[in-house]
Amino acid sequence: MAREEGAIGGWAALSAVSRRECYAGVAEVSIYIAAAYRGRGLGLRLLAALVAESEANGIWTLQAGIFPENRASTALHERLGFRRVGVRERIAQRDGRWRDTVLLERRSQEVGL
Question: CA torsion sign, 67 to 50 to 85 to 58?
């Protein structure tokens, strides 16, 4: 969570992708930046801290699913070493309609080598 001007400007979190032991080092990234705080570098700071913290805790792969039109989020993730691995078609429902997501992945250069 990041506070700016006394308010919460955004947050980032990791979720396990599976309970299976073999996926113990794989986590899904979620990040949100409030509209009033976008374009200030807050997302970069939060995601960079999340990457560092994940590696400090033995996570070797991070993945993110981003709606295709969210180019800013895609660019942010790519700046921190995520790469596009595909598109998951009709994987999410939002506002009553099926949505695709772009699947991005980051492999640690420190953990799991």
Answer: negative
